[in-house]
Amino acid sequence: MSPAIEPPARRGFLLGGVAVGAGLLAAACTSNSSDDDPKPAAAAAAPGGDNDKPGTKVVIGFSAPAADHGWIAAIAKNAAATAKQYSDVDFKSVEPTNDINQQISAVESLIQQKVGALVLLPNDGGQLNQVARKAMDAGIPVINLDRIFPDKLSYRTWIGGDNYGMGVAAGTYIGKKLKAANTANPVIVEIQGIATLPLTQDRSKGFADALKTFGFSVTAKQDAAFTVESGTKVASNLLQAHKKIDAIWNHDDDQGIGVLAAIKEAGRKEFFMVGGAGSANAIRDIQKGDTVLEATVTYSPTMASSAIKLARLVAQGKGMSDLVEQQVPQSITLASETITKENAEKYLPLGFES
């Protein structure tokens, strides 16, 4: 659940094949991550198919925002870990930055080095569209990660999560549970990331659409800016405004740390909560069952591992071994899955540390 700028169409290829790694697409978005976090290494699946046998040596450039967010930190670690698995890959990562101009300059340096492929998670898809197009025009295939460029000529392949699908998954879980409990006119609260972002709007639309199938709707929603501090403040305000709540969907597990802190401080236990992204701390809370958090829906940073694999295949002129087509698809959308106490153990190795 990255604070992305331009979401893609929701349809795409769901991968489970050898070329991308079956474990990569099953799970996990956001906050600060410690350097000793072992999870991203576990998220990178081991090579296993004919496409993974050493081939032509390729140089893969990589650029992403600064790792000041757990999800972004996991993106960078997963990309580096996967690149190390291949003896035919020379991985060149430029300095991460949240400054648009600095990222443009970094990408230009990779273009000047004539890398074989470029994996790029832009700070802003619109503002980096031109430099991505420059790479493509120079014959360097761009694997656009998560935040999509508005011009399709600016990338060879896009891979990212399903924001609308996150909302659908959360709404379906909440709707089913409330319906099974015969809850009439439930008070359903939604805590967004940043309300103005298209990704947030897609998540909210998916949530509303799913709830509507059960005859429910969102009672109140407020954005919390993807931070722990804002999560605490927003949750406190919503708890004060609603003396009775039946369910909460919090878009982001990192800000969810603050949300849960506010809930604990208020001593409220009459509702259940669903998170978003699939962070390791959220999954552990779900396993323990000692908070109101019952589930989280995934938006996995393992997409970075898949992006490296795709960049390697594209640079070597290969397709995906589980597909009939000779070339890597142009668009790949990961599934958003629901993590509960019953399957938490399976997803925990793919969780990222907040």
UniProtKB/TrEMBL annotation:
SUPFAM superfamilies, alphabetized: Periplasmic binding protein-like I
Keyword terms of this UniProt record: Signal
Subcellular location, record wording: Cell envelope
Ranges in coiled-coil conformation: none
Compositionally biased spans, kind Low complexity: 40-49
Source organism superkingdom: Bacteria
Region described as Disordered: spans on this chain: 30-50
InterPro entries: Peripla_BP_I, SBP_2_dom, TAT_signal
Glycoprotein listed as a keyword: no
Location of the Periplasmic binding protein domain: 60-318
Main location as per UniProt: other
Keyword Signal: yes
Family affiliation: Belongs to the bacterial solute-binding protein 2 family.
Protein name: Substrate-binding domain-containing protein
Provenance organism: Actinocorallia longicatena
